[in-house]
């Protein structure tokens, strides 16, 4: 296909605002794309490379401005391009405002050339040439590569008409913005080649390659689409979570899957004992070289080809996780990885298994995927077989008991992680979807300021710290208990709280400590329930420590009346 034809069709899409019409245009474009279908399917979304491929053109806007300026003629420079950009606000408009002339005139002179499938014998720029040139440009590296990139880009602009230049500039700078999203491409493939949308969707989720899926849909129909499988080394989009509550999760699923929500950064591990180990970030960027610990873990722990989903966490010397920003810094580290590794050592924890034993597991229920994960991670004879001791395994609890969930949450917080994830035990793995099958805890809408009226001494290495604080609210001149918060915060914070509360200890019995009302904690919670457990008649479900209200005394803490009002909400 000539690039001019592509640009005309894209201009028609650009001018359209109705979704159905956009899909119809894309459908027709796909039907007419011939051998260039895979490229067209990417370009129309503004993608130069498949979604799974983290190759980038690695050019800044200035490289593009310079190429445009050179193609536009001797009296234009990059500053001129930038000035026009300031006026017009959009690079496509700027590129289209120049008269490149170039080969366009020559093409017209020689009668054009090229056919609609792209095997051009003449001088008209084709979609394939743009694709090949951009691939060459992306591959240029080393000394002089920036000049080479400008030359290659200049070569393309030099052969563009203004409407071609408009969309070439937008493509190169990842600013296509013609309203063609993933959904539109999926629907257009289904309509153009008469295949069901859900089969296209599955194939897209598995391959992350719109070009490949479009071609297979056309050439091999549904059986071909169903044959598309996960490939080791090609990342899959991460399944995501919605906000939700424990109460809703139990009501909807009978039993909820509960896992720790680790405070780290998402990774996807592709391991092949006979081949490569590759690690990808949540955005499908390759981070293998930055995370040698994960590669070593795979070599030590795994026996078979697998794709695992998990989190890397950084644990400090005291055993608490470092903030996830520290972990993220590791992802970006290209040089001195050994030094970075000393400063912030990371380790992986896996919570899902997408492929094992030559089998794709996306459509298998979570519980079975988790069993597979467990067996994959415990495969080595020297590995402890007790799940709680298996290296790199995130545990999954199945329960309908809110108290058990609360205990898991408290443990996770205590260990310095973020709390819990709730998962539908029956659910498939849906790449890229933020569905209802994975839930993270809702952020606190309201918090309560409670007086700390009791505490417990910790155990083991926390024996000298107070923890598990009893919370009370005011009722006239009295204080009534509403719950306990196991702070789940760092040892440093516990130390600080212990120092703060120690002078107010009124009585002690075993580990239990009674405190004079003096300190006020701000506490978040999921909901307030009527409960005989506490003297107020109410209990905070899933209380979380937010902070100390240093600015408030006990007489300014929240009241039972407020608790009653909030409970009705
Ligand atoms: P979002 O993904 O919602 O844009 P985010 O990246 O901050 O935001 P959250 O939504 O808060 O993440 O939580 C989902 C993330 O939690 C996952 O992407 C993963 O990195 C992390 N996580 C930690 N533990 C787990 C677990 N057991 N199961 C799934 N995800 C987990």
Automatic annotation (TrEMBL):
Tell me the GO BP annotations in alphabetical order: cell division; DNA biosynthetic process; DNA recombination; DNA repair; lagging strand elongation
State the family it belongs to: Belongs to the ATP-dependent DNA ligase family.
Q: Which residues bind ATP?
A: 259, 266, 282, 311, 351, 434, 440
Descriptive protein name = DNA ligase
What positions does the domain ATP-dependent DNA ligase family profile occupy?
339-475
Name the gene behind this protein: lig
Physiological role: DNA ligase that seals nicks in double-stranded DNA during DNA replication, DNA recombination and DNA repair.
Q: Which InterPro entries match?
A: ATP-dep_DNA_ligase, DNA_ligae_ATP-dep_bac/arc, DNA_ligase_ATP-dep, DNA_ligase_ATP-dep_C, DNA_ligase_ATP-dep_cent, DNA_ligase_ATP-dep_CS, DNA_ligase_ATP-dep_N, DNA_ligase_N_sf
Q: What GO terms are given for molecular function?
A: ATP binding; DNA binding; DNA ligase (ATP) activity; metal ion binding
Annotated organism of origin: Natrialba asiatica (strain ATCC 700177 / DSM 12278 / JCM 9576 / FERM P-10747 / NBRC 102637 / 172P1)
Q: Which UniProt keywords apply?
A: ATP-binding, Cell cycle, Cell division, DNA damage, DNA recombination, DNA repair, DNA replication, Ligase, Magnesium, Metal-binding, Nucleotide-binding
Question: Looking at the keywords, is DNA repair present?
Answer: yes
Q: Which domain of life is it from?
A: Archaea
